[in-house]
Amino acid sequence: MASKPRIKVPKSASAGEVITIKTLISHEMESGQRKDKDGNPIPRQIINKFTCTFEGQMVFECDLDPAVSANPYFEFNAKVPSSGTFKFTWLDDDGSVYEAEAPIEVK
Amino acid sequence: MQLTRRNVLGLTAGAAAFAMAGGRFSPALASAEDAEKMVMDFTGGVTPGEGKVSLNTPEIAENGNTVPVSVTVESAMEGDDLVESVIIFADGNPNPAVATFHFTEMSGEALATTRIRLAKTQNVIAVAKMKDGSVFMDKKEVKVTIGGCGG
């Protein structure tokens, strides 16, 4: 149900530099608190985990609860030791996994 | 009892207090004590100290559905001076837990920004756990004009 994630990572950095990464994914983040027209509760369906790794090393991780807004947005920092690829994953309550990656070059 | 504006307001406040037991108004709103308990669960019983953590929230949020929240923790992010995790609570939401951030040495800086839902005017709490076991806390009140829970 989520659409293509959007990621902002600088194309290049100097070795050891701390960069800022921004990510956004379209997702309803149905909290489980709402009711439909007939008064039946709408079951919870959220993204419950977001991770960012760099060449297999964990950079940033977040456990989400229903109180995170729809279309979850994250901004965080990462240290860039060398050229490589950032990998991002979003885990949905229904078991789907959304993935994205972004390369970065060290000059 | 006549249903005057004053009575209705009084009833609503009373009902909110009983909501946990009676479930008359669901979802039941969590109490501040609940949030405090969750803070203690997270820290393992250690009372968090002041400082180090700074939580950035708007003073007034017009729309409780998306309230930008950013948290930074002073740390070198190297060796033992490392922030392991930061948890965000909202003590007036149906479920006080909001999000937990986990950092590593690769994070460079312990900083995270996201957008959260707030049901009503309440305190947002950030608790940071360091690698050496110490915990720090910051708390900000956010006034919410339109709540962001259900509809």
CATH hierarchy class name of chain A: Mainly Beta
CATH architecture identity of chain A:
Sandwich
CATH architecture of chain B: Sandwich
| Mass-distribution shape of chain B | elongated
Notable features of this structure?
heterodimer, A: 107 residues, Immunoglobulin-like, 3-stranded antiparallel β-sheet, 0% helix, elongated, B: 151 residues, alpha+beta, 8 strands, 20% helix, 38% strand, SoxZ (chain A), Thiosulfate oxidation carrier complex protein SoxZ (chain A), Ig_E-set (chain A), Ig-like_fold (chain A), signal (chain B)
Task: Please outline the helices and strands.
The complex is a heterodimer of chains A (107) and B (151).
Chain A: E1 6-8, E2 12-13, E3 17-24, E4 47-54, E5 57-64, E6 73-80, E7 84-92, E8 97-106
Parallel strand pairs in A: 2-8
Antiparallel strand pairs in A: 1-3, 3-6, 4-5, 4-7, 7-8
Chain B: H1 5-22, H2 32-43, E1 53-56, E2 60-63, E3 67-73, E4 83-90, E5 97-103, E6 110-116, E7 122-130, E8 135-146
Domain Sulphur oxidation protein SoxZ (chain A): 7-102
Organism (chain A): Hoeflea alexandrii
InterPro entries (chain A): Ig-like_fold, Ig_E-set, SoxZ, SoxZ_dom
What does this structure look like?
The complex is a heterodimer of chains A (107) and B (151). Chain A is mostly beta strands. Chain A has strands spanning 6-8, 12-13, 17-24, 47-54, 57-64, 73-80, 84-92, 97-106. The radius of gyration of chain A is 16 Å and the shape is elongated. Helix content of chain A is 0%, strand content 52%. Chain A has one domain (6-106): Sandwich (Immunoglobulin-like). The mean pLDDT of chain A is 92. In chain A, the strands form two sheets. In chain A, strands 2-8-7-4-5 form a five-stranded mixed beta sheet, with no helix packed on it. In chain A, strands 1-3-6 form a three-stranded antiparallel beta sheet, with no helix packed on it. Chain B is α+β, with helices and mostly antiparallel strands. Chain B has a single domain, classed as Immunoglobulin-like (Sandwich), CATH 2.60.40.2470. The longest helix of chain B is centred in the N-terminal third of the chain and has 18 residues, at 5-22. In chain B, strands 2-8-7-4-5 form a five-stranded mixed beta sheet, covered by helices on one side. In chain B, strands 1-3-6 form a three-stranded antiparallel beta sheet, with no helix packed on it. Chain B is 20% helix and 38% strand. The radius of gyration of chain B is 18 Å and the shape is elongated. In chain B, a hairpin with a 6-residue loop joins strand 4 (83-90) and strand 5 (97-103). The A-B interface holds A 18-19, 31, 33-35, 54, 57-70, 72-79 and B 27, 65-67, 70, 90, 93-95, 97-109, 111-118, 148-151.
